[in-house]
Each structure stands twice: as C-alpha cells, then as structure tokens.
Amino acid sequence: MEPASFPPATATTHCAASPAREGAKAATAQPERSSVVPPYWQRHGRHPSRMSSCSTDNGHATPISLEDHTAEGSEQCRVLWAKAVTIDDYVVVSGTAPGLGAYVVWNCTVETLDGGPMKIRKRYSEFEDLHQKLVQTFPYAVSSMPQFPPKSVISRFRPRFLERRKLSLGHWLNCVLLNPEFAGSPVLKDFLFS
C-alpha cells in the first residue's frame, strides 16, 4: 500500500443549493459535516461548505477549480518541504532479558521537495511524544490530524500487529508532514533532526 500523498493544490467552488436539492437532502438524512474548520483554511478564506461540487440553480454542476501552490513565491511552497513519507521497515531490538527492555525501531524515508530522500529512525515513543507536543502546540488543529495509532501491551511485537502499525504510523506521519500548519514548526523539526 502506498503512503497517502496530498498534492499542494486546494479545491474551491461556490454552490447554491436549489429547493429540490434541499428536500432530497432532508429525505436522505445525511449526517452534516463537522463545523470545525482547520486553521489553515481560516487564514486563506476557505470554508468546508465550499469544498465540494454541487448543483447550482440552473442544474449544472459547478466545476472544482484547483490552485497551484508549487510556484516559488507562494506561501505554501515556503512552508512545505516534504512530498511523502514512507515507513520502509522495522527492527525489533531485544532487551537484556527475554521480554524486558525490547523495543521497535521504525526506519522511515522522507522524500523532500528540494533534495534527495532523508532517512530517519524512530521509536514508537518518539512518534507518541511528537503527537503530544503537536496537540499542546496546536490545540486548535487537533481535528486536522488523524487518530494516533494506539499502544498494545499484548501484541506489540507480533508481526501482524507491527505491519498494521507501520501503515497507521506512515499515514499519520504523512498527514502531519504535509500539513502546512505543522510542516514549519520547531516541534516537527526537533522530531526529525534530533
């Protein structure tokens, strides 16, 4: 499974719902979107209600327009420096006694926009520490992060569990690194370069 990759483009559209559409919406009882707006949308005047295509009064779908933020001078280009992260594999490091002091090291590759790949090795506890620091530093941005992979005391060294954790940590780290809110923060840089 490939890691989640999010291009540096944003979709914007403006929609006006027709009365027939409103009635159909009430009949299907769709759950409403969360009213929590990620902070980087607020600064750029975006709103979740404008983030999808819908019918206008004339019955035609409004096209989604994309903004290219890869130009040298764009604000997003200055903040974002990574394009993808993969967790390649893991190594179980044995403790001094059987079952005591053992831990897992995750080997990660960060693909950067300017240079070659950057290799990092981190323990689960370091990922967890980063998550806690991000929550403390950006309490308003918690909703823009996926759920952090939970701990497991019983199956923490089982290959099947470790493979699932590898995918979950990879997805979580991609969402953090490719978020302009977190990408330039000292918290993230400290995690990567310490």
Main sheet, how many strands, which sense, barrel? Answer: 3 strands, antiparallel
User: What is the CATH top level name of the largest domain?
Assistant: Alpha Beta
> How many structurally independent domains?
2
Spatial shape: globular
Q: Quote the beta fraction.
A: 15-25%
Looking at CATH, which topology of the largest domain would you report?
Answer: PX Domain
- Under the CATH scheme, the architecture of the largest domain is 2-Layer Sandwich
Order of helices and strands: EHHEHEEEHHHH
- Poorly predicted ranges (pLDDT <50, ≥5 residues)? 1-35, 46-56
**What is the CA-atom radius of gyration, in angstroms?**
21 Å
What portion of residues is helical?
25-40%
Largest beta sheet: strand ordering: 3-4-5
Overview in brief:
Helices cover 34% and strands 19% of the residues. It has helices spanning 19-28, 39-43, 75-79, 124-137, 159-177, 180-183, 186-193, and strands at 9-12, 65-68, 82-93, 103-112, 117-123. It is found in: Endosome; Vacuole membrane.
